[in-house]
């Protein structure tokens, strides 16, 4: 049970996950411990990292230093392509646990649908059975690959973490996930500062109406739809501000105005593009 003021969603295996998490993508290891500690002090209880981010050890130090009981935290990490396959993924899960200083992960995801991700999924299923991972899922899977993975394996992914925000809403993908009991989760909920999303006139107007920032309006729009989001900042004031989204509510009309912003941009990384596939497969961590 998550002992936090942050509302939760219940995953398909009964595990509760906070609707808002703190992410550490592109935060250098030297800055990660401080940022995560500030996030935990602000009230975040969900922390999202990945082997490819190269900062799991710093996340682990922050968790240990925080003094927060383990059962009040929800920790997510992801397995990279270089550890794809059954045996490599088993080793990678153990490596992540060691770096994080944990006996159990709350959620472990396949980072991208490349390489022997079926072998990786078998390793995750085994870890789930053994209890070293409470919930398993995927990231950046389009509905076709997600559905095929479900068809040929025992455990249905609890989560599919994908890029989604007001300009890229992926409602068809979300419907496909929900039909199969997979929880959509947003990475890049603020479009990673691109496309002038936070200067959008509609969002600015709604922010003025509610006395909030445009970032808070976007995060409220996601979480009000029961879409968990992972948000990142290294600025203490912004870290606190991003969490303060559960004390106001958008009306149905306001939600519809944001929904009308869909389609303003494509994905940051088109994981079906051949050059992107080449680039990603050549990345190491």
From TrEMBL:
Q: Which domain of life is it from?
A: Bacteria
Q: Which Gene3D superfamilies match?
A: NADP-dependent oxidoreductase domain
What the entry lists under InterPro entries is as follows: AKR, Aldo/ket_reductase_CS, NAD(P)_OxRdtase_dom_sf, NADP_OxRdtase_dom
Record CDD domains: AKR_AKR5F1 (cd19133)
Tell me, what's a Pfam family for it? Aldo_ket_red
Keywords on this record? NADP, Oxidoreductase
Can you give the residue ranges of the NADP-dependent oxidoreductase domain?
Answer: 27-261
Q: Does the keyword Oxidoreductase apply?
A: yes
Coiled-coil positions are: none
**Which family, according to the similarity comment?**
Belongs to the aldo/keto reductase family.
Q: What is this protein called?
A: 2,5-diketo-D-gluconic acid reductase
What is the native source organism of this protein?
A: Actinoplanes couchii
């Amino acid at each position: 049970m998550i002992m936090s003021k942050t509302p939760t969603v219940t995953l398909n295996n009964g595990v509760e996950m906070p609707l808002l998490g703190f992410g550490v993508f592109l935060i250098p290891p030297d800055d990660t411990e401080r940022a995560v500690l500030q996030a935990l002090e602000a009230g975040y209880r969900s922390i999202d990292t990945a082997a490819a981010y190269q900062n799991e050890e710093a996340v682990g130090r922050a968790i240990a230093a925080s003094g927060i009981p383990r059962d009040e935290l929800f920790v997510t990490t992801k397995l990279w392509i270089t550890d794809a396959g059954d045996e490599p993924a088993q080793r990678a899960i153990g490596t992540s646990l060691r770096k994080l200083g944990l006996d159990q992960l709350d959620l472990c995801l396949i980072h991208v649908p490349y390489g022997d991700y079926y072998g990786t999924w078998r390793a995750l299923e085994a870890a789930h059975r053994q209890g070293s991972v409470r919930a398993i899922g995927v990231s950046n899977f389009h509905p076709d690959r997600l559905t095929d993975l479900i068809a040929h394996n025992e455990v249905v992914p609890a989560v599919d973490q994908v890029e989604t925000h007001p300009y890229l809403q992926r409602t068809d993908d979300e419907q496909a996930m929900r039909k199969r009991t997979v929880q959509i989760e947003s990475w890049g909920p603020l479009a990673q500062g691109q496309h002038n999303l936070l200067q959008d006139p509609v969002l600015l107007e709604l922010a003025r109406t509610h006395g909030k920032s445009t970032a808070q309006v976007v995060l409220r729009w996601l979480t009000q739809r029961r879409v968990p989001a992972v948000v990142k900042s290294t600025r203490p004031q912004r870290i606190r501000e991003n969490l303060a989204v559960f004390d106001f509510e958008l009306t149905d009309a306001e939600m519809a105005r944001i929904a009308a912003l869909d389609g303003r941009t494509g994905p940051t990384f088109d994981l079906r593009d051949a050059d992107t596939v080449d680039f990603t497969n050549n990345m190491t961590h």
